Amino acid sequence: MQKTKSQFSKSNKVKLAVFAHCAIDSIHIEDQTYEQIGGSACYCGLTAREFKFDVDLYTKIGPDFPKQYLTLNKINFTNAESKKNTTRFNISITGSDRILKLENECESIDYSSMDADGHLVSPIYHEVSSDVFRKIKDDSNFIFVDPQGFLRRKDSQNNIFLEKTNLDLSKVDAIKVNPEESQQIVSGTHDEMMMALQKKGVKYVLLTNKENVSLLVKDKVYSITLPNKQIHDTTGIGDIFCTAFTCTMIKEKDFLWALCFAGGAAQAALDSKNLGLQKIPSKGTVQTNASYFYNLVKFRDL
Questions:
Q1: In whole angstroms, what is the distance from residue 55 CA to residue 49 CA?
Q2: Distance set, CA 102 to CA 88, 159, 166, 189, 271 (Å)
Q3: Which residues contact 154 (CB under 8 A, 6 or more apart)?
Q4: I need a labelling partner for 250 at 20 to 30 A (CA). Which of 115, 121, 142, 271 fits?
Q5: Proportion of the chain in helix, strand, coil states, percent, rounded to 5
Q6: Phi, psi of 224 (to 5 degrees)
């Protein structure tokens, strides 16, 4: 396979609608603590802007959130302001492992019909109701789902854990899960879980397992391996990955190229060793990585 350069069109503007909460995160790495704005709303929105997409953000933020951050980055949001404070997480990071504690939960997201080229649903904690999720699916031309926020629960100390959840994935085009998340929706080996998610109606099933990334399309699994070196802050890496895949699929209609762009974006973010939203990579760096991965894709039949 030879492909060295994306044919990303420079034509008309394209729009991504993102359904997710903004957050304020307290990130603990080694003996340092950093307070950052984040949440998948911010990571997905800013990554899509880097890909030159218009972004309509469906979220809720409290009076404690610096909304000018969204405005300055030309992210559109309406009916987002809440009297409740913004969702907050306390995140302790050791290598690629994270321990999450929910410190505050903002109100859930309202639905309104919108005209967008694609929809990215990436809740962080129960902000997208099943009714809103159904309406988004009915409205969408292309919908990508990161289900983590549907699966999360909290214990009596507000520690986050995952719980088995019945998720209606009909009409979903693409999903990204790690092994722990997929076990809450389906069961079996990694291959069996990918096939079970496909049987629920998903066309493109992405399974990320640390540095190994697999994509099931029809009866073939395509895979790349990220050459992750030293890992610093992993917050938002999944959101950057999902957005790169979604934007590439919308523009290119090429799932292999989308896989490579997603891997390239995640690797570029990790390589930056930056904290929080500062790790969102430039499109040029992502494209260079994507070209590298494109010639290393492995595939096998299921």
A1: 7
A2: 6, 6, 22, 30, 28
A3: 102, 160, 161
A4: 271
A5: 30, 30, 40
A6: -135, 160
Tokens encoding 126: 């129960």
Mean pLDDT of residues grouped by 10 in the chain (302 residues)? 45 88 91 91 97 97 95 94 96 83 96 91 97 95 97 96 97 97 98 98 96 97 87 85 98 97 96 88 96 96 94
* Domains identified in the chain and CATH numbers: 15-301 (3.40.1190.20)
H/E/C letters for each residue in 217-240? ECCEEEEEECCCCCCCCCCCHHHH
Residues contacting 264, CB < 8 A, separation 6+: 244, 285, 286, 287, 288, 289, 290, 292, 293
54 beta partners: 15
Residue listed under structure tokens 């389906």: 186
Q: How many CA atoms lie within 13 A of 286 on its CB side?
A: 28
Q: Which two tokens stand for residue 232?
A: 């610093």
The token pair that represents 247 in the structure block: 């934007």
Cα–Cα distance, 170 to 151 (Å, whole number): 17
